[in-house]
Amino acid sequence: MKKILVTGGCGFIGSNFIRHALENYPDYRIVNLDKLTYAGNPGNLTDIEKNPLYRFVKGDIGDAALVRQVFAQEQIDTVVHFAAESHVDRSITGPAEFVQTNIMGTFNLLEAAREAWLKDPSGNPSGNGCRFLHVSTDEVYGSLGETGAFQETTPYDPRSPYSASKASSDHLVSAYFHTYGLPTLITNCSNNYGPYQFPEKLIPLIINNALLGKSLPVYGDGKNVRDWLYVVDHCEAILTVVARGKVGETYNIGGNSEKQNIEIVHTICDLLDEKVGLLPGGKDRRSLITYVKDRAGHDRRYAIDATKIRTELGWTPRVNFADGMRKTIGWYLDHKDWIASVTDGTYREYYEKMYGGR
User: Fold this and answer.
1) 162 is catalytic
2) Catalytic annotation present for 139
């Protein structure tokens, strides 16, 4: 039985990963370490909290003693490291937290794994099959022009405090493989969407506002391009890398679905008009679109070349964008109580700060 430590498991991707893993891999025991910040919602996992193969530990990866304690108590042999401050806008207004969590938190996890898994400083392993998978982002590569795609060999060129902190943690993880022989893996993924995503990110933000008849803020001209991946496909890719990836390697994970931001907004508006009807007065939801001042350092285009994970490990995304968006919007329509529970006064204060003056 694998004993997996998942960090940030109450967040968007982490909660989807835990649910998917427990449903499909009966020989996995999962320990979820989560600080429960604004984006970590224990309600995301209420349906599995009594599963005997699941344990939740409230705690901060910045607490080195706690991290070591969890490793020792649970005899952890696999780490899937999601925990991170991840929203670019927040990193611009408050970068210090990103440095602490994304860099120092990752360092604490690496040190705990090194202590638990390696016999001596030269890197002789104390056991076979251990894996430390660090979940990262395509944003570490910077911005693309109109053509081309990020490969695993693309030089790093982060443009925001968020992407710089993730790039730093990537380098730390790689260094622990080369210096100590720690069995690390890195995945760099494109934009995810799906159930349980906190509505500061584009897709759930637009869904929530469109349902409420509020303005739909779009940065700049709306033509920034991202590659979109349904979250469950990402979870399966991670499990594939854990099972069959070569230690020390990086794998790019993409959805083969490049879209301009304004295309995403139009798709959401049209699907909601179809599913729930037009706004009062017969207006369609595209009428709510408002262009706001662009984000500082806003990268123009990201695209992932996922050839390596496809050819070496046999993974490809199963859910196309059209089907994924219908699934996602259907989930949010069926879980309006979840949206209400996470968009409390603190969220509204943040929203006004980010978009109200633009």
Assistant:
1) yes
2) yes
